[in-house]
Each structure stands twice: as structure tokens, then as C-alpha cells.
Specification:
Length: 67
């Protein structure tokens, strides 16, 4: 976290390392609910899933038939 302090017209930055900073409150994941996806996001995720299945299938094909 960066804190900004102004002294006599000059800007002074105080940088605090995350290990020495106070921990912040975490969000409750169960209370957030589901995320709504647009059609383009659903299409992109489906395309990625099919691509990954295809690549895994190619690996298994190469392992089984040793071309």
C-alpha cells in the first residue's frame, strides 16, 4: 500500500511492504453468488474447453499408437 503525504508543496511517498502491512478483511466467497456471463464469454470458454479436450486427445493418441 502506498500512502501519500504532502509536505511544503513536495510530494512524499511512503511505501509499505505487503509483509509488514496490516492484513485486510477478506470477502466471504459464499455470500458473493454466481457471476453472470455474457454470450461471448460462454462461447470463449466453450471454445477453450474443446481445444483442451482436443489437445489431451492428441497426446493420448500419440501415446497409444506411437506414430
Amino acid at each position: 500500500m502506498t500512502n501519500i503525504a504532502y509536505n511544503t508543496g513536495e510530494r512524499e511517498l511512503l511505501v509499505v511492504h505487503p509483509l509488514f502491512d496490516e492484513p485486510e478483511e477478506k470477502r466471504d466467497v459464499d455470500a458473493l453468488g454466481a457471476i453472470k456471463m455474457t454470450k461471448s464469454v460462454k462461447y470463449s470458454l466453450m471454445t477453450l474447453r474443446l481445444y483442451l479436450f482436443f489437445m489431451v486427445g492428441l497426446v493420448f493418441y500419440r501415446l497409444l499408437f506411437r506414430i
